[in-house]
Design goal:
Elements (H helix, E strand, L loop, with lengths): L16 E13 L4 E12 L6 E4 L5 E7 L2 E2 L3 E3 L2 H4 L11 H12 L7 E4 L14 H12 L11 H5 L3 H7 L5 E9 L6 E4 L10 E4 L21 E11 L2 H10 L18 H6 L3 H4 L4 E4 L2 E7 L6 E13 L5 E4 L2 E4 L6 H7 L6 E5 L4 H7 L3 H12 L7 E6 L6 E4 L2 E5 L12 H16 L5 E2 L5 H20 L1 H18 L6 H4 L7 H26 L4 H14 L6 E2 L1 H12 L4 H7 L7 E9 L4 E8 L15 H9 L13 E9 L4 E8 L3 E7 L11 H11 L23 H7 L6 H9 L2 E6 L8 E4 L3 H10 L3 H11 L6 H12 L5 H11 L10 H14 L15 H15 L15 H15 L16 H24 L6 H15 L7 H5 L8 H13 L6 H13 L3 H20 L1 H14 L9 H12 L1 H12 L3 H11 L6 H14 L14 E9 L2 E10 L12 H5 L19 E6 L22 H5 L6 E6 L14
Parallel strand pairs: 1-11, 17-18, 18-20, 21-22, 23-29
Antiparallel strand pairs: 1-2, 2-8, 3-7, 4-5, 4-8, 6-7, 9-10, 10-15, 11-14, 12-15, 13-14, 16-17, 19-20, 23-24, 24-27, 25-26, 25-28, 30-31, 32-33
Helix pairs in contact: 2-41, 11-12, 12-13, 13-14, 13-16, 14-16, 17-18, 24-25, 25-27, 26-27, 26-28, 27-29, 28-29, 29-30, 30-31, 30-32, 31-32, 32-34, 34-36, 35-36, 35-40, 36-39, 36-41, 38-39
């Protein structure tokens, strides 16, 4: 990444007008994937000098342009898709020439394609802002033309609108623009499913909205800008039923246009497709689900097989948030899941929630969308009324992203649906759907004012989502996930730009958006913690509610929120100055790293503490990663600048000291400098309690007496982890206890433990030098799940020890712990499985699994029962932990003999088998034992393959067993355990296979280095460029990017080395030179070194050159995908500005006498490959000296040539056809138009005459 600097935010050019209302009428022909449309745009000029209207419009053929009911002759339009090609034979080295043609449409914001010059007689008059006409324009913009609530609008409501809206929107006479257009080949903006040959899915279609530039203008002309918002009227005309669509297609004998194998071939005839459906399916109605409220549905009186459905959206939204779907959808009323008391309390204010799915999936839709009605009510009561009249979710196939957000409609992928017996995606999918609902408030109703303000919109939407998920899943789940997310941010936020600077980059790479979605909600989370503590009110929720109120009453111009306005509201309601907070966490980059030391001063009875911030200290250079390599390269080319590393983060921090009597004492300190030193007073007046209590309890239990707890000062409460305490349990589980020395040390301590940042107000990494027994006390006695997770994370860093294993197994077996803490303990237990410890960690894991999931005194597992979700996570975590155990030779001692659970077992088994070292690392004596090992390995592989075959007959959810089996083969092949067989993966790559299996197979092939296999590379790029599914193409592109990253940093070399070692058994390694080692280090740590290595390995591959260019020029790819591939060409090839001109070789002429003095000239099949020699025409004096020259010698320089007279005649009914007579180099002027057009080709009549001086014997006679 480039050095630190400020990244300017791209600004959209001022258009000179704003749109108040737009009407769109679309006549969509589903089988031919085309449409005819008309749009009416009402725009309000910002000045009287407006001369040009600039609109975004792509892939449209404009048929009529009218401005204020007057034709508009002065219009300029160029479709970027017609420019997205080079009209000569080009290659990958000319990528920059194609890149220049489309860069204006790929940048953010994109250039406008349609320029309308206003007619000269168009008059723009200035209006009184408070006149009746101006108020009518404002009312139309605010409430729409057909709002059912318009009758209830009062003058007070109108005057509450923004003054800016009145002054700008209604200052001048509005202009109405009408455009009629045709889209014959829909390439972007809309996707059709089920109309291809062999595709037996239910036919449907939907819009493919996205944040990418130019995504909204592919179906109708508009202003493709988030801040350009207006009310909408939308009418969509289409076939009434599936049968009507196919029948009309069959009767016209039109071939379906397909985006299939080569992106250009014709699909089946309509009659073939018509016969693929049953009568019941043909009768299914095609429903239209669209943004806004449906006003009517009318059958076309001229064609009863078609219908027109109309919608209105009275809430101003941008064109990017207008979407619709057409298909045989089933309706599911999700409001029925609303609790009865909520229904009664809300009454008529309850917002309807509708679900739409393809036939047969209503049960999955109900199960998946169960929490949405509850979420709707929670948001409405907490943050304010819903901005639309209803909310709809429509589930479709092939959607490239999981969810597309549009006004009052979320178009969701069918991949999100899951039945009742699947629990693995429960939390993840629920959070995604709840977030889609939150976006309706923050993201559609309110938009960012500038790209640098995206962090506010994204952060608030996810904050609202997480607050509801806390209500749904509980506080432990909420805080546990927040802690894991904070740890992830600390790991990723190194040499990254700030949140403010990341906004303009979210269209650069998908990882930029993912990072913002991770960090922005956490920043608001810690802001909420600080506001709640300081102000004692409801924190950020109240601020968010006020922002929505401001938007409703018009204090938020155009519904656009910027960072400054958000900070102002926070300071006003929180009664705090937050300049430093936002400067550090939003405008600044990075996260603090604290190093804490403490010491108890017995004389002063204080705890002396010191907090150092070490984030500015130099760190070790990080190696490049294949998954983020392309993003790093793009950032280096832009360039993107890393934020300044801050020397000191400031703010309050809560420190909680648990003193000897078990009482927690909280102390709030202010961090102001990089090094903070302070003293905390000590409150307890007696020594710390002895740790021998448990030993006394065990002694009393053996003697059969009761130990009297609570005697004197020997009282110590153990809230968690106090299981397996009896002597019998100690022997059976082989548990350990604290040594006498440890007990003595603990008896001298004056406090139990110190908890830093107890209120979770920092996103940081905290290193505290507490004693080990203090961390254990925090794990067992602190009820905060974050404190428990911190203790387990610290334990994972200490040396393995039997006592560590004892503490962790007690944590695992105590059901009072949150399941995330128990699974984390299981993972750390695997690290305590060492030979020097007699494999105590492995024994504890196996014993725990047997105790929890097997029959008594038996290794036979009980039938899987996943009714307890927490226990399910434990059941999957233990085998995964056991699979990571390794012995001194690198082997796995794993001997552990539904759907996701089986997949976890299969993957754990593969990871265990992959631990076998290659033959070069094994002693020769070990080969004697390889016979039994090979039998065991073979049995394991057979078991993995058995589940793969079972999945072929009884498919699992998303084919998870088959995909896991392929992952297992990839793991074993990369480790050199089995031979790499591409055929095992290629069988799952045809387009008739499940998309999950196809992408998994391609991903595993590329991970195994098959980019070096020309045949596989050719097939991979062919599918990338021509597959009809945008989801498949998008993920294939991600796989290709990751593969290039892995090749650049040399990951494939390690795989090849392991495979060679496993197969050959002997690898001769020679010490590499200093230059080679430096080059290897450079490719792993520097962008330029990795790019050089990438070019050295791949740039000369002719197959890659040819097939990559074929993919780039494929008519199936979207413009954005073409741009991404062109960016990859920039990494691989040196640009060469050239134009290859291809000329056809000339053909020899032949002549044939047809009688009556006529000779027919035509081209022969013989090609002339050498130029003719230069010929000199002799003069008449020279020719008269040789009157008797033979005809055979006419080609010599001294030959006398008779003059040739050509007579052209155009017959009324030509008798000569074909290309042989269609080429005439010299024609009379009067015939140029007819020859150049479709008129019949002229017949040549040749007439020869003798020269006056006498012709030779070879001269023809007339």
């Amino acid at each position: 990444m480039a050095p630190s600097s400020e990244l300017p935010s791209p600004q959209a050019p001022e258009l000179g007008f704003s749109i108040s209302h737009q009407r769109v009428e679309l006549d969509i022909d589903l089988p031919t994937q085309s449409l005819r449309g008309r749009t009416e745009i009402v725009l309000n000029p910002h000045s009287k000098e407006l001369k040009t209207i600039r609109l975004n419009c792509r892939q449209c053929i404009l048929s009529r342009l009218v401005v204020n009911n007057k034709p508009c002759p002065g219009a300029a339009y160029q479709d970027p898709y017609s420019r997205a090609k080079l009209p000569w034979k080009a290659g990958v080295h000319q990528y920059h020439m194609l890149q220049q043609k489309v860069e204006g449409q790929l940048k953010d914001p994109p250039d406008q394609e349609l320029l309308l010059h206003l007619p000269k007689n168009t008059k723009i008059d200035e209006l009184d802002p408070f006149s009746e006409e101006a108020q009518g324009i404002l009312l139309s913009k605010t409430l729409g033309k057909t709002d059912s609530r318009a009758d209830s609008v009062t003058a007070i409501d109108l005057t509450q609108s923004t003054r800016t809206g009145v002054e700008q929107t209604a200052r001048f006479t509005p202009i109405t623009v009408n455009i009629e257009f045709v889209v014959k080949n829909i390439r972007d903006g809309m996707h059709f499913v089920g109309w291809e040959e062999g595709d037996l899915r239910y036919p449907h279609a939907y819009t493919t909205n996205s944040l990418s530039p130019g995504a909204a203008c592919c179906l109708f002309p508009c202003t493709d800008d988030l801040t350009s918002r207006s009310t909408w009227e939308i009418s969509i005309k289409c076939q009434k039923t599936i049968g009507d669509a196919l029948r009309s297609f069959s009767s016209s004998k039109v071939q379906l246009h397909s985006n299939g194998a080569n992106g250009n071939h014709n699909g089946p005839s309509g009659s073939d497709k018509y016969d693929d459906f049953s009568d019941e399916d043909k009768a299914l109605d095609l429903a239209v689900i669209c943004t806004g409220d449906m006003t009517d549905e009318i059958i076309d009186p001229r064609d009863p097989t078609k219908k027109t459905t109309s919608f209105t959206c009275t809430t101003p939204i941008s064109a990017q948030h207008v979407g619709f779907a057409i298909g045989p959808f089933e309706h599911v009323d999700l409001a029925e899941f609303r609790e009865s008391d909520e229904d009664e309390r809300l009454g008529q204010n309850a917002v309807p929630v509708h679900g739409f799915c393809l036939p047969g999936r209503s049960g999955e839709t109900k199960n998946t969308c169960l929490p949405l009605a509850k979420a709707m009510d929670f948001f409405a009561l907490t943050y304010g009324s819903y901005p639309f009249s209803n909310y709809k979710l429509c589930f479709v196939d092939d959607l490239s992203s999981d969810i597309v957000d549009t006004g009052s409609l979320s178009i969701c992928s069918n991949r999100l649906l899951f039945p009742e017996d699947i629990i693995e995606p429960l939390y993840r999918v629920s959070r995604q759907l709840v977030h889609a609902l939150a976006v309706q408030w923050m993201g559609i109703n309110i938009v960012p004012k500038d790209s640098s303000d995206f962090w506010v919109i994204i952060g608030i939407a996810y904050f609202m989502t997480d607050i509801f998920m806390k209500k749904l899943s509980g506080n432990n789940e909420y805080r546990y996930n927040q802690k894991r997310a904070a740890d992830r941010v600390v790991e990723l936020d190194v040499a990254r730009p700030s949140l403010l600077d990341t906004g303009p980059l979210i269209t650069l790479d998908h990882l930029e958006l993912e990072f913002m979605e991770l960090k922005a909600p956490l920043v608001l989370f810690i802001l909420d913690r600080r506001l709640t503590k300081a102000g004692g009110f409801s924190g950020l929720s109240r601020i968010i509610s006020r922002i929505f109120l401001n938007a409703r009453i018009g204090d938020l111009p155009n519904g656009a929120l910027d960072s400054a306005s958000f900070i102002k509201v926070c300071e006003k309601l929180g009664h705090l100055k937050l300049d430093n907070f936002f400067a550090q966490w939003v405008e600044g980059a990075g996260c603090p790293r604290f190093r804490v030391s403490q010491r108890f001063n017995k004389k002063k009875l204080v705890v002396e503490m010191s907090i150092h911030q070490v984030q500015s200290e130099p760190t070790k250079d990080r190696d490049l990663e294949s998954s983020t390599f392309i993003r790093d390269v793009k950032e280096d080319q832009v360039p993107v600048y890393a934020g300044t590393v801050q020397q000191a983060f400031t703010g309050p921090m809560t420190i909680r000291i648990h003193e000897a009597d078990g009482t927690p004492y909280e102390h709030i300190i202010e961090i102001k400098e990089a090094k903070t030193t302070f003293d905390i007073p000590y409150n307890t007046k007696y020594k710390r309690l002895k740790r021998s209590r448990r030993q006394r309890e065990r002694t009393a239990a053996v003697a059969g007496t009761d130990y009297a707890a609570g005697v004197g000062d020997d009282v110590l409460l153990y809230s968690l982890g106090d299981v397996l305490q009896s002597e019998e349990d100690m022997r059976e589980w082989d548990l350990s206890d604290w040594s006498k020395d440890d007990e003595d040390k603990m008896s001298q301590e004056s406090y139990e433990w110190i908890r830093m940042d107890a209120d979770f107000e920092w996103i940081c990494k905290m290193t505290v030098n507490m004693q080990s027994y203090m961390w254990v006390s925090q794990l067992q006695q602190d009820r905060d799940v974050v404190a428990q997770l911190e203790s387990v994370q610290w334990i994972s860093t200490v040396q393995p020890h039997p006592l560590v294993s004892t503490i962790l197994i007690r944590t695992l077996m105590d059901q009072r712990y949150f399941h995330g803490i128990r699974t984390a303990a299981a993972e750390v237990l695997a690290r305590n499985a060492r030979d020097e410890l007699k494999w105590i960690g492995r024994r504890h894991l196996e014993k725990a699994f047997q105790e929890l999931f097997c029959y008594s005194d038996s290794a036979m597992t009980r039938a899987n029962d996943f009714s307890d979700r927490a226990l399910y996570y434990i059941q999957t975590a233990i085998p995964q932990a056991i699979a990571k155990i390794r012995n001194a030779e690198g082997r796995s001692p794993f001997e552990f003999s539904d759907c996701h659970y089986l997949a976890c077992l299969m993957k754990a088994l593969a990871e265990a088998l992959a631990a076998r070292p290659p033959p070069t690392e094994r002693a020769f004596d070990d080969f004697e034992d390889d016979g039994d090992n090979e039998l065991f390995h073979s049995a394991c592989l057979d078991e993995i393959d058995r589940y793969r075959r079972i999945d072929e007959w009884i498919p699992s959810y998303h084919n998870v067993l088959s995909t896991t089996a392929l992952d297992c083969k990839r793991i074993l092949a990369r480790a050199g355990i089995i031979e790499t067989r591409p055929a095992d993966f290629l069988q799952y790559t045809p387009d008739c296979t499940s998309e999950y299996l196809r992408l998994n197979a391609f991903g595993n092939l590329m991970s195994l280095g098959m980019i070096k296999n020309d045949a596989i590379l050719r097939w991979f790029l062919f599918v990338l460029g021509t597959d009809p599914s945008p989801y498949v193409r998008e993920n294939m592109l991600r796989i290709f990017e990751k593969t290039l990253g892995a090749t650049a940093i040399g990951e494939h070399l390690e795989t090849a080395k392991a495979q060679v070692a496993q197969q050959d058994g002997l690898v001769i390694e020679q010490e590499s030179s200093t230059e080679a080692r430096q080059a290897d280090l450079a490719r792993k740590q520097t962008i330029q070194g990795a790019l050089n290595a990438l070019r050295d390995e791949l740039s000369a591959n002719p197959v890659l050159k040819t097939e990559l260019w074929n993919a780039i020029t494929s008519p199936t790819l979207s413009l954005q995908q073409m741009g991404d591939l062109l960016d990859l060409c920039e990494l691989l090839y040196t640009p060469v500005t050239s134009m290859v001109v291809v000329l056809k070789y000339p053909r020899y002429w032949t002549c044939r006498k047809v009688g009556k003095g006529k000779v027919l000239f035509s081209h022969s099949s013989r090609i002339r490959t050498t130029p003719l020699p230069k010929r000199q025409i002799p003069s008449q004096s020279q020719s008269s000296q040789h009157p008797t020259h033979s005809r055979e010698n006419t080609n010599t320089a001294n030959t006398m040539l008779p003059p040739l007279k050509l007579k052209f005649a155009v017959p009324k009914k030509p008798t000569l056809q074909g290309p042989s007579t269609s080429s005439v180099e010299s024609t009379p002027t009067s015939l140029e138009g007819s020859i150049g057009g479709e008129a019949p080709k002229p017949r040549l009549k040749l007439s020869f005459s003798k020269l006056k001086g006498g012709g030779g014997q070879g001269s023809p006679t007339p």
